[in-house]
């Protein structure tokens, strides 16, 4: 027993170092797996406040670009107004009412705006901090989209802030489809450039061309269908595989993003419960 | 200004510079992530005991980690260099007794060549461990080697600039032993 104490006293520094290493590594691996870590809620709140201070200054330098992207988005939305379309001649043909929101349908997605206060693009695992948290209705796993295209999904929420796993993160995986052929594949990031993401899993039997639009699908519950992700910039030649590897130019410019929309799927719980119970039934 | 106050201000400044300037820079290349924050650990006083040095390293890294949302990554690397630092110093200046006559490691207290060796060794160690942890769930061997050396080169350049811009004058304390 005495020897044990002597050993501890003699190598105390090394043991202390080992303990700290183990703490650090357990934080890291637990966070990589479940996006949970000790003191994360408190620290998100504090770093969020500091980020907000910085953003108040930085925001002025981005005003012009932010304004431009918002105006473009407004123009796109105005384009979709009912008044822009000539009503079909309903005297000669039977027409179905195709307006999506009416008294009989149920709203599925709720959209909340949020200001981006923290953002990185130069690391291998990039997160955004947004100024809207648990008290304002943000929950983990909600989708986040920008004025031009999708941005990522919420991984962590504190009282007034939330962290968003950006599309530029090595763990980001999302199902997407090509607008032209409706083929679905997965979107991920290879860590090379913040301008491009990689799409995999499109069979070579499908026709793909440069400039094809990549959209979200209704297959996952995070985003509504047909939101912009990007456009195909390059078809990477790979003869060994029967699937395409596509380099997709992201629609979102992650460098100067200032406002995002958090998408709340109101039927998420119901869908997830059903899927989980099905899985249990099979086992 | 007392050493404690000076180091506390440095602590905050290094983290803010790393988070709001170096991480905000548009990425030059995927191999290059400019790191400067760990210089704080290299600048800590000689008189700090090994245990508190290791702990300061851990805490400093963790603070940065909560900004980048990678809890534990920088903390692990900082703990390692803070633990190894006394060994490197004792090898490099064992004969001169500079660690008693000066407050903290610098060009003045250690001399050009030993100080450069000290910085290079710890930078390389820090980057290797950091990229290794990143590499475990991401990337290839080429990525690992390329990133370690490219980031080390950029970091050394930044350290050199910082040493030139903020030259630390150090008094020779004769009657302290």
Number of domains of chain A: 2
- What's the SSE pattern of chain A? HHHEEEEEEEEEEEEH
- Average pLDDT metric of chain B: 87
**Architecture (CATH level 2) name of the largest domain in chain A:** Beta Barrel
Q: Please state the overall shape of chain B, judged from the principal axes of the Cα atoms.
A: globular
Beta strand % of chain A? 25-35%
Radius of gyration of chain B: 16 Å
Largest interface: A-B, 44 and 35 residues
CATH class membership of chain B: Mainly Alpha
Strands side by side in the biggest sheet of chain A: 1-2-5-4-3-12
Keywords (chain B): Membrane, Transmembrane, Transmembrane helix
Transmembrane segments (chain B): 6-23, 35-60, 72-94, 148-167
Protein name (chain B): Rod shape-determining protein MreD
Protein name (chain A): Cell shape-determining protein MreC
Sum up the structure in keywords.
heterodimer, A: 283 residues, alpha+beta, six-stranded antiparallel beta barrel, six-stranded antiparallel β-barrel, 31% helix, globular, B: 177 residues, Arp2/3 complex 21 kDa subunit ARPC3, 8 helices, Rod shape-determining protein MreD (chain B), membrane (chain B), transmembrane (chain B), transmembrane helix (chain B)
Question: Can you give a write-up of this model?
Answer:
Chain A: Residues 60-87 form a coiled coil. Chain A: Belongs to the MreC family. Chain A: InterPro entries: Cell/Rod_1, Cell/Rod_MreC_2, MreC, MreC_beta-barrel_core. The complex is a heterodimer of chains A (283) and B (177). Chain A is an alpha+beta fold. Chain A has helices spanning 2-10, 12-34, 40-79, 268-282; strands spanning 109-119, 125-130, 143-145, 150-157, 162-169, 174-178, 184-188, 196-203, 213-216, 228-236, 243-250, 259-265. Chain A folds into two domains: 2-34; 39-80 and 117-266, Rod shape-determining protein MreC, domain 2 (Thrombin, subunit H). Helix content of chain A is 31%, strand content 29%. Chain A has a six-stranded antiparallel beta barrel. A six-stranded antiparallel β-barrel of chain A has the order 6-7-8-11-10-9. The longest helix of chain A is centred in the first third of the chain and has 40 residues, at 40-79. With 177 residues, chain B is an all-alpha fold. Chain B has one domain: Orthogonal Bundle (Arp2/3 complex 21 kDa subunit ARPC3). Chain B has eight helices and no strands. Chain A binds chain B through residues 12-14, 16-17, 20-21, 23-29, 31-32, 37-40, 43-44, 46-47, 50-51, 54, 118, 120-125, 127, 156, 163, 170-171, 191-194, 255, and chain B through 20, 23-27, 30, 33, 50-51, 54-55, 58, 61-62, 65-73, 75-76, 79-80, 83, 133-134, 137-139, 143.
